[in-house]
């Protein structure tokens, strides 16, 4: 075997050994993650650089249970979708906003 054939064989075996890697990231704050925050409202996941921003809307003290409602935004808004062996990037639902409130009418407090 010549040097070029060995190199080609090594490159081919390396490519076969590598699995398919998807670029989908976990949103929110997954357990056992490493996060960074410098007294800012956002929390950045250092593994995938997703910024998770909680926005407090309503916090009311209650007798037994407190009522807490927060909106949250995740900066990772694209994920891969495969259809007919063609992969394209699609945005997530609501473009990263989570816990959108249903609109039923005015809130009486």
Summarize the structure.
The protein has 109 residues and is mostly beta strands. It is built from one helix and seven strands, in the order αβββββββ.
Kindly describe this structure.
The chain has one helix and seven strands, in the order αβββββββ. With 109 residues, it is mostly beta strands. The chain has one domain (22-98). The strands form two sheets. It has a five-stranded antiparallel sheet with strand order 1-2-3-4-7, with no helix packed on it. Strands 5-6 form a two-stranded antiparallel ribbon. A hairpin with a 2-residue loop joins strand 5 and strand 6. The longest helix has 15 residues, at 3-17. Mean pLDDT is 75; it is low at 104-109.
Strand order of the largest sheet: 1-2-3-4-7
Rounded to an integer in angstroms, the radius of gyration calculated over CA atoms is: 23 Å
Principal-axes shape call: elongated
Listing every helix as H and every strand as E from the N terminus to the C terminus, the arrangement reads HEEEEEEE
List the helices and strands and how they pair.
Elements: H1 3-17, E1 35-36, E2 43-45, E3 50-60, E4 67-74, E5 78-83, E6 86-91, E7 97-98
Antiparallel strand pairs: 1-2, 2-3, 3-4, 4-7, 5-6
What descriptors fit this protein?
109 residues; mainly beta; 35% strand
